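In keeping with the milestone schedule agreed at the kick-off meeting, the structural modelling team has produced records for the first pair of proteins. Each record is given below as a sequence line and a structure-token line. The laboratory manager (R.T.) confirmed that both were archived under the project's standard naming scheme.
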Amino acid sequence: MTLWVEEAGALTTVQDRGRAGLAHLGVPRAGPLDRPAAELANRLVGNRPDAALLEVTWGGLELRTDAGAWVAVTGATVAVDVDGVGRGCGRAEWLPAGGRLRLRTPSSGVRSYVAVAGGLDVAPVLGSRATDTLAWVGPPRVMDGATLPVGTPAGPPAALDTPRPPTPGPLRISPGPRADWFAADAVARLCAAPYAVGEASNRVGLRLEGERPVRVRDDELPSEGMVLGAVQVPPDGQPVVLLADHPPTGGYPVLAVVHPDDLWQCGQARPGEELRFVRG
């Protein structure tokens, strides 16, 4: 089975669980920014958890298939249709042979996940089918006219599944390894006021705009290992939450680290929206 991409939208990439464990070689992990939504999409069509699927930023995807298949769209709230007929999100839908699946622009959230029964059978790179947008390791960015092979279905579609993680809320943080480079109340102040999501946010990092943490050390920090969810503070003082395509090392001090279970919210936060932090 093959998918033909008629329109790829603003940014569509292939993702799976990522290539964790290669940071010592300078290779980012990649993987979906909204992991719970990606895992749900795969469950709905009967795929294994590590099956490759599409991450679609800001909608606009249109594709067709040469054979019937179960598909599921999760993540951002987006209108979905098959051959012009409205279909639902968060459930398995049948895409007939020759049928066209289209995602409109999301009304909330940023990233949608499109899973097809059997998973995308593109060639793995370093053990993963995830696309990293920092160094462009992995499958190439999905473009208009691309063809994507599909594997053999692993199981039947699911009739019902949990629609989403718990209700969005403040991002839980713990103090980072360089919290002592900032004022003693820096973590508390980070939690005291909202931050707006910046326009320059991407798969590498969520850039925030708000109160600047006060540094008490001005010397240079040698590059050191970075973890997913690290809240870095660059010279302009505006915090950046490192996401799936973050570089393995960095030289800006890390004030805090976001809890892994809350990172999916960063993948769906729209420019201008407000986020809050909470100690926990």
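The second protein of the pair:
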Amino acid sequence: MKTADIISPQRLLHLLKRDLLSNRNTTVIIFGAITAIIYLISAVTAYSYSPSDKLYTSLFTKFLFAGGLIASSMIFKEMHMKETAQNYLLLPASNFEKFFARLLISTVGFAALSIFGLSLISYLCEGINTLILNRHNQIFNPFTKDIWMITAHYFVVQSLFFLGAVYFRNYNFIKTINVIFLSTVFILIIGVFFTKIVYFDISNGFPGINDITLLVQGNRITLNLKNIDTITSIIKPLYWIIPAPLFWTIAYFRIKEEEVKNAI
């Protein structure tokens, strides 16, 4: 059986180990810099303002998304560089193993590192604040609904940047943001024109606050906000189910296509 057709847990572990250890020096330096920044923020907050119980939740959100999305955008840099592309292609692993190893690192791995790292940093920073300032902020608590919801949102958004990392050869992060922005603007423009032309009775002006009046083939239909909430509740689960698996799947097939092109 060909390597590309099988999955080996042992080989997957070796890939994870290789990818993690190859960036260990950079990770240590970044972790040290982040620790210093967080301590300054926590010290200023504890000294200048009333100690905060939401400080570390806010910091977790910022560092998870900023750091995670940038890391996800760069995670396939090795595949796009001429100097390292050949070594990447010759790795004794299947396409799926290469894809899955870096998906784990940039999703579950980065989220776990952020939670563990921030927990450790919060104990360190607030311990110092207590000794020096005799006051401290609330310690970071990762076992809350807010933290898990933030992490779930990160997985969805990360899938876009993961796909961008595979699709674009350089400036992955910036290009992905540009694509998201332009796509959003395009969808909004199409939605506004579609709504104005097909549904709304323009002669009635803007819809009211409590309901929306539509004109469909000469018949008036009033949508109460409760109806809109019902529609939203039906559509909302699709946000959790469709985008991430879809973009990850596209990224996987893009990796296979990219490897074939590079091999040729």
